[in-house]
Amino acid sequence: MPPELVSVVITNWNGRELLAQCLPAVLKQTYTPTEVIVVDNGSHDGSAEWVGSNFPHLNLICNDTNNGFAAGSNLGIQQSAGTFVATLNNDAYTRPDWLAALVRAMQTDTRIGMCASKMLFADRPEMINAAGICLDRAGLAWERQGGEPNNGGEPGPIEVFGPCAGAALYRRAMLDDIGFFDEDFFMYLEDVDLAWRARLRGWRCLYVPDAVVHHVHSASGREGSPFKRQLLGRNKVWTIVKNYPSPALWAYLPAILAYDLGAVLFALLFQRDVNPLLGRLRSLPALPRMWAKRRAIQRRRTAAWSDLTPFIQPLATPWQVHSRYKHLMP
């Protein structure tokens, strides 16, 4: 097939040391991107100046403040020229054939709008960080195959619910159809929200195990930080409100509420952590705005619930849910 124009968008905040590994790896791809765009979100560690001095041929966009991953990525996408757009975390560095593998998979079907990479822990390359997104009927999203050994796994691309935006390839036609990342999310779960919206419009996603990146997990937000836990709690509520289709939403609402209450109580009683509760409370004032977004999303929905269920996991026991995150715990 003829080559596609591919733009790579990297959003950065105070990641100068991370970019020193990320950018050279992107520029060594066997599939040469049309452009590499670095969006600097008001860094105060000299990131923008360093990129401008060492990589003057890259497209550098500088924001005055930290607008978050969603808004930063959107700005880069808006100013990109590629028919495919790759989003890449500044704390990820790619293998040379990463982009080529993603493009090959995307070209196999025009209804494939998203491709997910195999993300390995940078400090534990024998362990998978993410192989796409998993979602269950309680509305819980987690990193597919997170914590599993990197022992080959799937021999070729397979369909999954969606990609982790830390190393993903998106079709511009899909983004034009469904919209970009929701900037209200700031960061975290904005990729789950986008995958929901894409799936509701009938777009597909492939996980591409040959597209390998090494990821310094949560280098910006810090795993377990109050900041991250609040945003995850808030954004989870918004994701479900916006996207979970009726009538399945009402059928599974008791389970959704029960699992969510269980997560908050577990954090309060066993972890002495109020942040998951605070995050959910922070979601409430914006619920009317999210419901308006829901009406627009569901009005344009073309996929039936039966089209989605092959990629939505059944309900799990509480200890099974807890085990999904064991590899991230200290």
Explained architecture:
- There is one protein chain.
- This protein is α/β, with parallel strands linked by helices and 330 residues long.
- The protein has helices at residues 16-26, 47-54, 68-78, 98-106, 172-178, 190-200, 226-243, 248-270, 275-283, 287-299, 305-308, 318-323, and strands at 6-12, 35-41, 59-63, 84-89, 92-94, 112-121, 124-130, 133-135, 141-143, 158-159, 167-171, 204-215.
- The protein has 12 helices and 12 strands.
- The strands form 2 sheets. Strands 1, 2, 3, 4, 5, 6, 7, 10, 11 and 12 form a 10-stranded mixed beta sheet that branches. It has a two-stranded antiparallel ribbon with strand order 8-9.
- Broad shape: globular
Q: What is the ordering of alpha helices and beta strands?
A: EHEHEHEEHEEEEEEHHEHHHHHH
CATH superfamily of the largest domain: Spore Coat Polysaccharide Biosynthesis Protein SpsA, Chain A
Q: How is the biggest beta sheet arranged?
A: 10 strands, mixed
Count of helical regions: 12
CATH class placement of the largest domain: Alpha Beta
The unreliable regions are: none
* Residue-averaged pLDDT: 95
CATH topology of the largest domain: Spore Coat Polysaccharide Biosynthesis Protein SpsA, Chain A
Round the Cα radius of gyration to an integer and report it.
19 Å
- How much of the sequence is in beta strands? 15-25%
Q: What is the CATH architecture assignment of the largest domain?
A: Alpha-Beta Complex
Helix content: 25-40%
Please count the beta strands (DSSP E, at least 2 residues each): 12
Structural class: alpha/beta
Q: Kindly, what is the distance between the CA atoms of the first and last residues, rounded to a whole number of angstroms? A: 46 Å
Question: Structurally, how many domains make up the residues?
Answer: 2
